[in-house]
Amino acid sequence: MKLAVFDFDSTLMDGETIDELAKAYGVFKEVQDITKNAMEGKKDFYFSLKERVRLLNGMKESLAIKVCENLPLVNGAKDIIKELKNRGYKVVCFSGGFKLATAHFREILELDADFSNTLCVNDGILSGEVGGEMMFGDSKGKMLLTLQRLLGINIDDTMVVGDGANDLSMFRYASKRVAFCAKEVLKKEANIIIDTKDLREIIKFI
């Protein structure tokens, strides 16, 4: 058995979930600036996440669900996951984004599991608060180590794919470290760099 872990936003999905939610709620500019700094490693991920979600306070949950279930996938997303599973990989998604999106696309992409964060809701309205499994800059690395121990998989049989600074913590636990259309901060630590927005490019390296 082998393990492949994909980031969701700007890796499996073409864009950032929180930016799409912000567009729908009319706070895109404020959220976009924070997202950019967080993904480039210029702002602490935890505080940037809390700050961005706070701007969604008052958004209807029904609108958030509609946005999250209609996000565009990156070219080749279904193909690369099918190929990896055919080769004996467990394929998992780690996201600093939200369960409303990752749980939906877990089914569509036939992922083995998804780990992400939950937007808090009160009477059908987003409260502007968030909690979950991927809140911190090092959350992905810690969860990857947990999965490896649970499944009995070592570094040599692990591949991770991401695009931003909060994916860095995964890289230390994987032999194949894929920077996919990534920020420079991640490319520096990768040993596979793909700048074409097509996940099928990964097949060349497995």
Provide key terms for this protein.
206 residues; alpha/beta; Rossmann fold; seven-stranded mixed β-sheet; 9 helices; globular
Please explain how this structure is put together.
It contains nine helices and seven strands, in the order βαααααβαββαβαβαβ. It has 206 residues and is an alpha/beta fold. The chain has one domain (2-205): HAD superfamily/HAD-like (Rossmann fold). Strand 5, helix 8 (168-171) and strand 6 (176-180) form a beta-alpha-beta unit. The longest helix is centred in the C-terminal third of the chain and has 13 residues, at 139-151. It starts with a strand and ends in a 12-residue tail after the last strand.
What is the secondary structure topology, with strand pairs?
Blueprint: E1 2-7, H1 17-25, H2 28-39, H3 45-54, H4 61-68, H5 77-86, E2 89-98, H6 99-109, E3 113-122, E4 125-132, H7 139-151, E5 158-162, H8 168-171, E6 176-180, H9 184-187, E7 192-194
